[in-house]
Design brief:
Blueprint (H helix, E strand, L loop, with lengths): L7 E5 L3 H14 L4 E5 L2 H11 L3 E5 L7 H10 L8 E5 L4 H10 L3 E4 L4 H63 L4 H31 L7 E5 H10 L2 H6 L3 E7 L4 E5 H17 L6 E9 L2 E7 L7 H4 L23 H11 L3 E7 L3 E9 L6
Parallel strand pairs: 1-2, 1-3, 3-4, 4-5, 7-9
Antiparallel strand pairs: 6-8, 9-10, 10-12, 11-12
Amino acid sequence: MYLDNNTVILIADDQPDNLKVILNVLEKERPNAKFLLATNGEMAVDIATKRLPDLIIMDWEMPKLSGFDALKVIKEKEKTKDIPVIMATGRASSEDLRKALAAGASDYIRKPIERVELSARVNTCLSINSLLHQVKEKNTVLEDLNREKDGVLSVVAHDLRTPLSNIFSLSTLIELDGNLNSEQQGYIIQMKDVVHRGTALIQDLLDVNSARNGEVKLKLVDLPIEEFIKAWKISFKTQLQHKSQSLKVVIKLVDKIMTTDKTMLARVLDNLMTNAMKFSVAGAKMYLDITQEEKNILFALKDEGPGISQEDQKKMFKPFKRLSATPTAGEHTNGLGLSIVKTLTEKLQGDIQLESELGVGTTFFIRLPVKIERG
């Protein structure tokens, strides 16, 4: 509540009669509040800095330092910049009031002061200030929780990676030892698959967290696009063969080299391609068209999957959101792929769009600058 025993109000005016009028009105409505008085601008700044009142009512014309100049000083100081200030004046023009509001004043009141108007404006400023304090306190709590979450995530990621790595190494040793029947070999394959999925999930979680915290730094290189895409396509050869799927790539570019982050670009295309394969049936075809758009390059990846409904499109880029479609061969999905795509695309100073028709397929459009300027 903005009216409590802790409310402190500073009234700054060089005219004793004005101080008395304001004080009489506010004391009747706030018998538990504390009032501080200043008779010039310098005194107002000094008291505000030392006592940090909840509200300042500032006369415009005062000796030593005018109310307007005192306002500017208060708003420039880190300690006092958030204190609401009501300017009180009988002579300032509309342009002066506009400047005062632009300089940080919360409100103004004209002299001679009306009791109802004064009370209403003070009430409004104090209530807004109270709400701002509550928001700041909650933000502080959320920031502390977020830092704690980051710490826990880092520890968990580190502590999980080690045993997963050990499991993979031990399963490989068992496999190399031989003398395994077909059932046991199947178990080894399953163990390695679980390890791969666990490791991928950890990496996805760390990537999303780092990107959201602004920890992802671009490592810019001059990237020959055709060579990059050729190597990238080869990396999916086995997965495509596993489901008898195919990928056709068409490149029509004026600029043959991009200045971008190679790893980040690969991650974007990897996630889109992995999704396309997961949600397309065996034998389906995928198409990647790379074309020029003035100073941008457009990557358009089309699949023959089930399409994405309008409802799913509203949530598809949010972390951990599972869409209504399911992988066609029981592949694993953690709901982070498209969230990572959007986050990394934006880090690459690009944007992502899609066109989708249920039962026909989806095309994702990734538009990226040909050249990201090195900072």
